[in-house]
Specification:
The protein is an alpha+beta fold and about 425 residues long. It has 13 helices and 20 strands. About 35% of the residues are buried.
Length: about 425
């Protein structure tokens, strides 16, 4: 082994396991110098974009290392391999001394996020039609009907600005005139000079389907990330001070995949492309933070996608509760109580179940005396019980899958 820029060169023989799915304490990721590596997952939810065979210049293990969670994949050497091992604490050094590698990781993460997001929307939200130019108008209509005029004003304005020949231009203009006096929309056309911005509660920062040229760092307050699907507002996340969002449009030049709305009075730092390029070298800690946040989101989406494959509905609810505990890094000690910061309706929405089905599964779940629904919060007297039940249902699923596979093989043979 030799070291260079605090990065260690490691070699693996053909057939060696480099990282193993489910193992805790991921603290190194790898960049391949030579050789080939196969990436696999116990549950292959969606075929990875770019395939599962990696070669020189590719990297793996970054999601778990940078999010400080268990590994979400297994990596095995297909040939003798040489690679650079990067400790999570040295990621800042890597950014400063090898900016192209850091940018490649961020761009790779961004593509993976978008790809997994789309897969999750298809599976859980049953959404397959890709939004079109009229989607922005539909966003305005949705919020206008909810009497949320700040958001409606913003969406109508963007629609008129971006699609002056759109089929609903006349209606959007008319609606906008009607609600203008009741609404408070800010930074409708962004700003070339003002990067520290205040967004009052309930104002839109950007809308899904509009182009984006900035990412945002929350200085104070909180922001909710939402998506309008089948005429329903789906809450994807609530972000707090220190969080970064909007990076995918900036990095990839693709339309916004969701809307961002100030959840309370919020102060943001807006970063455009030019400032972002400077920031990569001048402020590596922000890039490291962005990588951590993206890694966290990817880890969470993988877990949500794996949840969709559980056939037992009660099992899916237990699994969703365990994912939330793991995500918040809550120690899973037997006999310790925990109150989740969401209620039963949110739990059903999280797993994308129809409400009637979800309520039935929930009744079964609540037969467990260690789990209760109190004051619109889910409470457990034993976190270990949630882990035990989730693992039981995953194991049952694995046994059933193996049984089905054997059945298929026998019928073919």
């Amino acid at each position: 082994m030799s070291t260079n820029l605090h990065l260690t060169i490691v070699n693996f023989s053909k057939g060696a396991y480099i990282i193993v799915e489910g193992k805790q304490n991921a603290d190194h990721f790898f960049i391949i110098r030579s050789g080939k590596v196969r990436i696999s997952k116990e549950v292959e939810v969606v075929q990875e974009e770019g395939g599962n065979i990696l070669g020189p210049g590719d990297f793996f293990g970054v999601v778990s290392t940078m999010s400080v969670h268990s590994h979400i994949e297994t990596a095995q050497a297909l040939t003798d391999c040489s690679m650079i091992s990067v400790h999570k604490d040295n990621f800042g050094d890597l950014i400063v001394k090898n900016t192209p590698v850091a940018m490649k990781i961020i761009q790779g993460f961004s593509r993976r996020m978008r790809y997994l997001d789309e897969a999750l929307a298809r599976i859980t939200l049953k959404e397959s039609a890709s939004p079109n130019s009229e989607h922005l108008y539909m966003v305005g209509e949705f919020y206008a009907k909810q009497s949320q005029y700040n958001q409606a004003h913003y969406a109508y304005h963007q629609y008129l600005r971006l699609y002056p020949n759109g089929e609903n231009v006349a209606k959007a203009s008319e609606r906008l005139e009607k609600i203008k006096s009741y609404s408070k929309a800010v930074y409708l056309d962004g700003s070339e000079t003002e990067f520290n911005r205040i967004y009052p509660k309930g104002t839109m920062i950007f809308s899904e389907e509009m182009p984006g040229s900035e990412l945002y760092i929350i200085q104070k307050g909180s922001v909710k990330i939402t998506k309008i699907v089948n005429n329903t507002e789906v809450l994807l996340a609530v972000l707090k001070a220190g969080d970064i969002f909007g990076e995918m449009s900036l990095i990839e030049d693709k339309p916004r995949s969701a809307s961002a709305i100030a959840y309370e009075d919020t102060q943001l730092l807006a970063v455009n492309k030019e400032n972002f390029s400077r920031m990569v070298t001048a402020q590596p800690q922000i890039i490291a933070r962005l990588t951590q946040l993206l890694a966290e989101r990817i880890w969470f989406i993988y877990k949500q996608l794996a949840n969709t494959l559980l056939t037992d509905k009660v099992g899916r609810l237990y699994d969703a509760l365990l994912i939330q505990l793991e995500r918040a890094r809550v120690p899973l000690r037997q006999g310790e109580a925990h109150t989740f910061d969401f209620g039963t309706t949110e739990l059903i929405n999280m797993v994308g179940m129809p409400m009637a089905e979800g309520k039935q599964a929930l009744r079964e779940l609540l037969k467990n005396s260690r789990i209760k629904a109190l004051d619109n919060r889910i409470h457990t007297t034993d976190k270990g019980e949630i882990e035990k039940q989730a693992k039981y249902y995953r194991k049952m699923q694995k046994i059933e899958r193996a049984r089905q596979q054997k059945k298929r093989e026998n019928s073919m043979g």
